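#random but structural
TW: two for the price of one
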Amino acid sequence: MSDPELKDALEDRRILVTGGAGFIGSEVVRQLHELEANATVFDNFSSGKMEYIRGLHDVKVVKGDVCDHEIVSKTLRDQELVIHLAALPFIPDCYHHPEEFFRVNAMGSVNMMWESIRSETVERFVHVSSSEVYGTARYVPMDEEHPTRPNSTYAVSKLAADRAVFAMHKEHSFPAVIVRPFNSYGPNVTQPYIIPEIALQLLSANDSVQLGDVENSRDFTYVADTARGLIMALANKNAVGETINLGTGRGIKIRDLVFLMAGFLGRQVRIERDPTRLRPYDVERLLCDCAKARKILRWEPKVTLEEGLRKTIEWMVNNPIRFRGPFKGWYQSYYGKV
């Protein structure tokens, strides 16, 4: 869909974005604001940041938990459309807090979907899943029919949510769409995903980058492209009942990513293997087939990896960040530090 078509479909519509102060969510809210939609952010601010949505006039903010029936029901009372992004997203945390990941990612999604059905005002529900539900690629590129064999409790919790949303869509004839973004990156990051982690190390004075497995390969999508795809799924009636991948179809190994980013900064670095950063049962390769997004949504990624990395590094230079996770055990689980 073109921008004018999106604006025609969404102007003045009341749209709830869960996780709307987070990484992808804040970009979704910014684009909705540009389309002159009436966006409401629903976030518990465990990792989302108010500064990411500051300056977006007329955007309403509700602080709340997606598992809280009362506040979810109250917030949905006058909403027309929902983009459900709220989740615990950082995989290393799930190794230590599997129950909390299932509570938020699976049961929180069930609650959001059920209260949307009960609201009598919500007309469509976009559930944001993850390419992690597929596990390591059995074939490439990976389309929506690829087997789902998740490799982490995070991914299992996301797949459980997918299945529940789809079943409730069928049971109640309620319009829902499942979107599975591949690895997103860009400004307003809230977690130490691999690209911001590499960038932070490159921006330090060290001559080495310490990482875990650098032979793994990922399909990276710039956050503005991901957000635009989610909004298109919200606006396009043909997407209802579908599961749709969002990705570029270009894969890159983490090793090559390091040297590509180092080149942008004029740095020469070596990679050192840090065993504390290795993930158990990690996904080895993800590569998206986005033919369905092209056909149904008329979505194409606009930002190349090189352009997106430059924008991300520039943002991180101008916006020094210190990651904070929702759990006290995060630093121990990821960095091996107290």
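TW: number two ↓
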Amino acid sequence: MNPISNVWKHPKTSAAGLLIAVVTIAGVLSQQGLTLGTAGSGTIVTLISAIATALLGLLARDPSNTAVILSESAAADESKDLHSGSTPKIGVWALIALLLPLPLAGGCSGTAVAQDIVNWTPALQSAVATVDSTAALLAPADAPIFMAATVGFDAASNLLVAQAKAYLANPTASVLAQLQAQVVTFQQQVNAALLAAAKITNTASQQHALACIQGVATIVSAVFALVQSISGKVALAQMAAQSTIKLAAVQPYMDQRKAARILANHYAEPVALARMQVAQAEINETQAGF
């Protein structure tokens, strides 16, 4: 097949392929710290990636009846089948490419990340408040275990938000280092709490404990991914070294559907897309050694 004539015969597919390549290359450049200059509060690389992503979003509006349908109500239970006659529709590839610049790890500027972390404050405070009130709902023998596992959540959440605000006001390397250390500390506390809750023998108490801890865990993971997106290789290596309880140890006790619903609600996006973002964020975290 003549590649040149194929471009003219399938312009949407060819354009999507080019845009996907642009987003992919931009993501690699951002990970390597190459910015190509600044654009407002962000970088040229981030701007190019955002433009390419926006164009992909327009291409994803495939009018065909066989296009992929991703609705929030359907994704809350089970994703609908991806219907395409013989080859994937353009919407599929555009959606896959949209996963590269995640709201959680999109190569954003440090200021934008700090603001996003601060924006998580109400949800984080609500999740921690739920944890604080959960012990009274557990079996008497299980409440002390739960309380001991989650006792540090209030202080850790307050400190994390305070450091995010400090970095937003003064985005320097030293303040970022404090933010990196605190998000690792909080994540480790949450991971330890999940493992402790998993040892509760009363089934009802265990499920209730794990569910409320996951509310905090999801938000901490989102914040962790945000901090990860603006951290260099050396800092990430140091953070990974401090993470003694790895993601793999707590994944069996995490509910990705619940995590996706929390993420989708925060970013006002379809749950189906949020589920993919959660999965990709976990992959990124594991590959970085966490």
